C-alpha cells in the first residue's frame, strides 16, 4: 500500500502536462499571501524602530532640559511622541527621573508622570530589582527614564494579532544635576 502511494506521488511530481492557468490559480494565492505576510512583518519592525527612535528623541530632549518640567510639558511630550511615532493607535508614555541611593542600595524615584490610559506613575517599590535594567551610576546620580507603549495593528489579516511595542530608554542628565517636576509652575 505504501509503495503504491509513493509511486503515485512520484508520478504526480514528474507530471508536466498541466496548464499555466491551473498552476497559476493554485500558486498565486500562496505567493500573494507570502508577499502580504512579508510586508506586514517588515512594517511591524519598521514601526518598532520608529517608536524606539521617538523614545530616544524624547529622552535626549529631557536630558538637555535645565528648567522644571510641568504637567503641560509632559502633555506636549506625549503629543510629540504621538507625532513622531506616526501611529493612529493609542499610545502611552511614562517619564521618570530615578537616582541611585547607596544608603538604600537601590534606585529611588524622584518623580514620575504618565500619560495614556491604564498606566500609573512609578514608585520606589515598582523599581526594586531594576539594577539589571538601569545603568550603574554613582551615589545620588540621576537618570531620565522614558517608557513608551503603542500597539501595532497589521494592515492585512494574515493571522497576526495586534502587537504591543514597548520602549525602555534611559539617559543621564547632561546640563544639570537634576531634573525637577513642578506641578504649580507656569
Overall description:
- The protein is of the alpha+beta class.
- The chain has one domain.
- The chain contains three helices and four strands, in the order αααββββ.
- It has a four-stranded antiparallel beta sheet, with helices on one face.
- Helix 2 (20-63) runs antiparallel to helix 3 (71-85).
- The longest helix is centred in the first third of the chain and has 44 residues, at 20-63.
- The N and C termini lie far apart (86 Å).
- The chain crosses the membrane at residues 20-42.
- Keywords: Membrane, Transmembrane, Transmembrane helix.
- It comes from Aquicoccus porphyridii.
- This is Pilus assembly protein.
The helix tally amounts to: 3
Largest sheet: spatial strand order: 2-1-3-4
Largest sheet, if any? 4 strands, antiparallel
Q: What is the 3D form?
A: elongated
Question: How is this structure best summarized?
Answer:
The chain crosses the membrane at residues 20-42. By secondary structure, the protein is an alpha+beta fold. The chain has one domain.
Question: Any chance you could write out the topology, listing elements then pairs?
Answer:
Elements: H1 2-14, H2 20-63, H3 71-85, E1 91-101, E2 106-115, E3 142-152, E4 163-172
Antiparallel strand pairs: 1-2, 1-3, 3-4
Helix pairs in contact: 2-3
What characteristics describe this protein?
single chain; 186 residues; alpha+beta; 4-stranded antiparallel beta sheet; 4 strands; elongated
Amino acid at each position: 500500500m505504501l509503495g503504491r502511494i509513493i509511486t503515485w506521488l512520484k508520478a504526480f511530481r514528474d507530471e508536466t502536462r498541466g496548464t499555466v492557468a491551473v498552476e497559476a490559480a493554485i500558486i498565486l494565492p500562496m505567493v500573494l499571501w507570502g508577499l502580504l505576510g512579508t510586508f506586514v512583518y517588515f512594517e511591524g519592525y519598521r514601526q518598532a524602530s520608529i517608536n524606539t527612535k521617538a523614545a530616544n528623541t524624547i529622552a535626549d530632549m529631557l536630558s538637555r532640559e535645565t528648567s522644571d518640567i510641568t504637567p503641560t510639558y509632559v502633555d506636549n511630550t506625549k503629543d510629540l511622541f504621538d507625532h513622531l511615532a506616526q501611529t493612529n493607535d493609542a499610545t502611552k508614555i511614562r517619564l521618570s527621573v530615578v537616582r541611585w541611593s547607596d544608603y538604600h542600595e537601590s534606585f529611588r524615584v524622584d518623580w514620575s508622570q504618565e500619560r495614556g490610559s491604564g498606566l500609573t506613575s512609578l514608585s520606589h517599590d515598582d523599581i526594586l530589582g531594576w539594577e539589571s535594567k538601569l545603568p550603574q551610576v554613582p551615589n545620588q546620580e540621576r537618570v531620565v527614564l522614558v517608557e513608551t507603549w503603542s500597539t501595532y495593528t497589521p494592515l492585512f489579516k494574515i493571522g497576526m494579532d495586534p502587537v504591543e511595542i514597548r520602549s525602555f530608554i534611559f539617559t543621564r542628565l547632561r546640563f544639570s544635576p537634576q531634573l525637577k517636576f513642578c506641578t504649580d509652575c507656569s
